[in-house]
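Subject: mismatched residue count in predicted assembly?

I count 575 residues in my input, but I want to confirm that the predicted structure covers every chain. Input:
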Amino acid sequence: MASDLTLGTFPYKRPPLGTLPPMARTRAPAVAGLFTIDDGGPRLIGGRVPGTESYFFPKHLGGADPRVGPVGLEEVLLSRRGRVWSYTTSHYPPPPPFVATSEPYEPITVAAVELEHEKMVVLGQCTAGVGPEDLEVGMEMELAVDTLYRDDDCDYLVWKWRPVAAGSEDPEAERNGSSP
Amino acid sequence: MDEIAVLGVGMHPWGKWGRNFTEYGVAAARDALADAGVDYADVGFVSGAVTVRCGYPGYVAGATFARALGFTGAQLASSYSACASGTTALQAARGQILSGACDVALVVGADTTPKGFLAPNAGRRPDDIDWLRFHLVGATNPVYFGLHARRRMDLHGATTDDFAMVKVKNSRHGAHNPNARFTKEYGLDDVRASPVVSDPLRLLDICATSDGGAAMVVSSMDWARSRGHRAPVRVAGISTVSPTYPDPVIDLPYLAADSVAEVSAPLVGFKESIGARAYDEAGLGPDDVDVAEVYDLSSAMELDWYEQLGFCAAGEAERLLRDGDTAIGGRLPVNPSGGLGAFGEAVPAQAIAQVCELTWQLRGAAGARQVDGAAVGITVNQGLFGHGSSVIVRR
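Triage response: the counts match. Full output below for your records.
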């Protein structure tokens, strides 16, 4: 039956190596449920107290607002952009569960960015090549997705911050019709 | 708030001794009992500050110390609130005393620490924010210290030399402290030459982790008088406040601060509220303070505390430091013990050690690091996950 070919049976006989085109590497969030990796631009997945403008990140670990009721938080996508609140660069490799990917260790720059709409400061690594000399408090940043670590088959992704290129417009603002 | 008496204090020297934490706690407890002139049999409540790095005996620290000192039927409690654990243990003792459940309590904290960064427990735990911050961002504790230091530079014009001068000052203080781990006096060039850990902070700006133990014997004022303690150092205020939502300042161990899109931040921020609660209980204010022990997890953080405790307005901490106000001999000496810079942090013992130092200062028994005429002292510290910690003592 054709379904044997499409769904496979277990255990199935693996075709000899070299008879199939190489598989595309898969991409997956290093931890599920914290951010989207859509082509339209990555977004952090936050929580909001229903009926308010009170936001949390991550959603499943948020909720310091005393108004959080038994219904809990509703899921929302957070602003892609914000402004630098502060930043630092780690010159020593963090211990596990951080996964070191370079040998020798390359310093990691971490930015704390206040999201445009939510007025909430969110931490993240900066994209490769961004160091403290490239940053200053108040400058505009946007969310990116980058590889955190990889194994034989998969790139495990995380959100990161990168400076907004001068003159570029926020696609999200365009969609919302609020762009000047 | 009614006061309780500090009858005795004791410490096991800080170091990297690598022995069982119980040993340090028991040594400190015996010293505190001897200092108080109190028979251990009179202790009705043993209040332990918990360590999470030493297995089950650490989780039940109150029982562990009591058993090692000898079980007498005393009531027990064990408190954990990260760096604030010692203050929580002291507060539990005050509650027992003021409720009349006991006359005398023993408060003990001790730790044996691993080398290097403090890290979360093993295993994949994506529902644990402490695990997520290490795994996804590599946000060690010094990352947060670095963020706050950089923010201070940007907002208030602090320089890396200002941060270094905190270390220089505290190392001068700690050089005279037999319980301190680091007694070398550092100069500005030493700090400048140490490697950057979390930009803009260098190795000598950031506190180490240490082994150590500290203990206090506390009692009701009536019991103290009945035993001839006519003018003991008194605990006048204890604060273990949590933040009031929303707290817009990103801090350990979170990936995000609170949103202030709809609800504005409270007029008094979390760090400011910690000391404010202790001042309220004591009926005192910043102008009354003669000496302070503040949590200098980083040198830059000490400057933040000057402002958060009301010693000066926001942005003026560097001036206080540069003018020598916060050095021994100055107007308001801060960290005469040498602070965490000279000790390294032994988590459950540290908040107790702060009160030990102030007790010696208020008794006039601090030797070469004595602050002249000290009558009121305040401690401040913060445990991650929202634990404020401050104690005011007076004589």
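The first strand of chain B starts at residue 4 and ends at 15. Marking this ticket as 'not a bug'.
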